Structures are given as structure tokens and as C-alpha cells.
Amino acid sequence: MTKHTEQRSDYTFKYNTKLGRHGWLRLTPAYSVKLVQELVSETPKNAFILDPFSGTATTGLCAIEMGMSAHLCDINPFLIWFGNTKLFNFSGRKLNELEKVFDEILNSFPAKISNDNWVPNLHNIERWWCGHTLPIVAALRSEIVEKVGEPQDDPYSNLIWICFCRLIIETSSAAFNHVSMSFKGGVTKFEVHQIQSLFGSIFENVLASARKPLKGKAVVNSIDSRCMTDVDNIRYAHVITSPPYPNRMSYIRELRPYMYWTKFLDKASEAGELDWKAIGGTWGIATSRLKDWAPSEVELPKILLNSCEAILNSGDKNSELMARYVHKYFYDMHLHFASLRNLLEPGAKLDYIVGNSTFYGIHVDSDKIYEKSLEILGYTNISTTIVRKRNSKKELYEFCVSARWNG
User: Fold this and answer.
1) Quick check: helix, strand or coil at residue 239?
2) Which superkingdom is the protein from (predicted)?
3) How far does the chain reach from its first CA to its final CA, in angstroms?
């Protein structure tokens, strides 16, 4: 892979939005399709690829578009549901049938607007959708449920739900002018005909990309990456993944509107529980539980312990919490690297896309800490390549940390 020190928009989520299935739903931290394609092209033919941090299933989709096979892992039920729909090879005939169902939904939902339709228990929901738009969106959801049921294991009806997720975010006051989601200055008012037009356009684009056949096969499994488990006795030749970065940016925050509207979440405490299970999670109770967390006796890189001590001594009121956060993040990643070894073929290659971080002016060099963890655990041929510069002022970069497992 070529070394890049500039800010590369083609190596970010922005590039993905123009690429068929890759652009079905926006998740800001998703890594670049172009970068993954470069890494997949290095995989031996007929070999199995593993992504232990599936996210929006970018690795799996790149793999099967190139005729490879892949297993992906995640703990978030919404991302597992979304990823498996995204990776499905659809039948043209059944998509034609789905198109008729969609047209019925589009034409009939306005009759439900005056009903007392269900809306999610999303805190401060009026900040997301104004009092005029919300009943229209709720009526559309009610009609979808009546025609195809709630989100489920059927990939065809799930396409309509994915389009609905796109619709709710595009009609909301959410703004994406930062590394994560924020809010615009005010909510936008949508009329029924505008909702119909937008929903129809989204479905048309999703349907067109769903019609394109996929060459390989991939599946997302519910597995905690800290304790990787065997799936069908498969051994992997290449691990291509991008774990959460150690920067306290909660993925669950950006996923919440999707997860509430699809009933994968019902209340804020569930979001906190899920984020606590995630590596680097920070939402709700994840922060409060961090105060009581302590590592077990595991050999960790000295560079990590030095970074934690520097953060602890920085003098900020939250320095102890942040030092503990950084410690736990890399402790969890160390457990992941350790449990991964039993799933790898001899000679397997690892490629981890990760960014560095700063806390109170102290640099946390993720690439160097990853390297040392891998070395402690017996991996070889360890190296790091700069993928791109993320922030010119803070000297934040994205790296590809690579290694081999020789068994």
C-alpha cells in the first residue's frame, strides 16, 4: 500500500456514499472502500477474509464484489442486521415483487397521518423532526409494518427498512459537518409529497444497486471481538479491519436514530449497555462503569502504560477517567489480538486501520501500541504505513498496522 501523508477524501466515508451498496447508510467512521479494495486484492484467491469489527460491512462487501469469501463480526444487533442485508445476493424476480409492495406503501401511507401512530422513545425527538414532519414519518412507518412487518431476517423487506432509515436521517435536523453527527440550526419542515418523492428516490437507488449480483459470499456473526470464537472451523488467511479509534467518539450516538425507529433500541440504558460492551465505548453507563474498571494481570506494552501515566498526571479534572479509558481500550484490543491467534492460518496477514489520538495535548500513538501488543503475543513482520493525515493541526493520522501470524 502506498504511503500518504495528505488528507485523502478518497480514503474516507465520503468516497463510499457514491458507490452502490456501500452508500446505503451513512456511518461517519466507516473506512474507505478504495483502501479496503487495495487490501483485499492482496489476499490469495480462494482464501477466507475476516473482519472482527464489521461496522457497515465494508470489508465483506468489497470481498464478495471481488469474488472472495469473508466472515465478519459485530456485537451491535442493528449492524449485524444491516450488514447481512447489504451482503445478500438478491433475486431479480423477487425485487420486482418488492417494487410493487413499495409502490402500495408509497401511495397508501398518507391515509394514516391523522392516526395515533407509534413514534420511538428517542430523547428530545422534536429536536430531530418538527411537529409537522414527525406524524408523516410515523404514518409511513406504520404502513411499512402493515405491509412487510417489523425489521426481520427477510432481506427483501429489509431493503424497505434500510430506505426508511435513509429517509429519517435525511428529513431530520442531523448535520454531518464534523467527525460525528451534530445538529443543524433548526428542524426542516417536509410536506407529504416531498416525503413521497424522497422515499421513492432512495428506494430506486437502493433497488438498482441490489440488482447487481455479487460474486462471493460473506456473513456477519454476533461475536465479541475480545474473545474471538470459531465459525464453521474456518481458518483465515487475511484479517482486514478498522476497530474503533481510542478517541471517545461513541458509534452508538450516530446509530441511535436508526436503532430507535427500527426497534433495535427502546431506551437510553440499552444504548449504554451496548456501548459498554464495545471496545472504546463511552455512551451513558459506559463512562460511569469505567470508574470502577481494573485490568487483570496481562502483560501490556510499556509505551501504553507510559501514555496512561502522562494523561493521569496532566492535571485535568477528568485525567484519571481518561487514563483509565485509554488503558481499557488497549487492554481490550490486546485481548482481541490474543484470542485471534487460534483462528488464523499459518502465514496469515493482518491489516488494522486505526488512528492516533490526543488527550490534553498528550499523543497516544495507537500504531506503536498495536505494534508492541502484537510483538508480545508472538506476531511477526510487524510494520506500519501512514494511510492519510486526519487533522493537520493536531497531527492526527490514520495508519495501517500490518503483521503476520506464523503459528
Assistant:
1) strand
2) Bacteria
3) 25
The pTM of the whole model exceeds 0.90: yes
Name the percent of the chain lying above pLDDT 70. 91
On whether the CB atoms of residues 101 and 161 are closer than 8 A, the answer is no
User: 237: which 3 cell numbers?
Assistant: 488467511
Cell of 322: 481518561
CB 238 within 8 A of CB 49: yes
Beta bridge partners of 70: 49, 218
Q: Count CB-CB contacts under 10 A for residue 317.
A: 6
d(C-alpha 222, C-alpha 229), whole Å: 10
- If DSSP codes are grouped into helix, strand and coil, which group holds residue 292? coil
**Out of 85-89, 90-94, 254-258, least confident range:** 254-258
Which phi and psi (to 5°) does residue 170 adopt? -80, -20
Estimate the crossing angle of helix 155-170 against helix 133-148, to 10 degrees.
180
Q: Classify residue 302 as exposed, middle or buried by CB count within 10 Å of its CB (0-12, 13-18, 19+).
A: exposed
What would the mean pLDDT of 378-390 be, rounded to a whole number? 95
H or E stretch including 45? Answer: none
Complete domains list, the chain, with CATH:
9-87+219-405 (3.40.50.150), 92-210 (no CATH)
The C-alpha cell at 159 is 431493503
pLDDT surpassing 50 at residue 377: yes
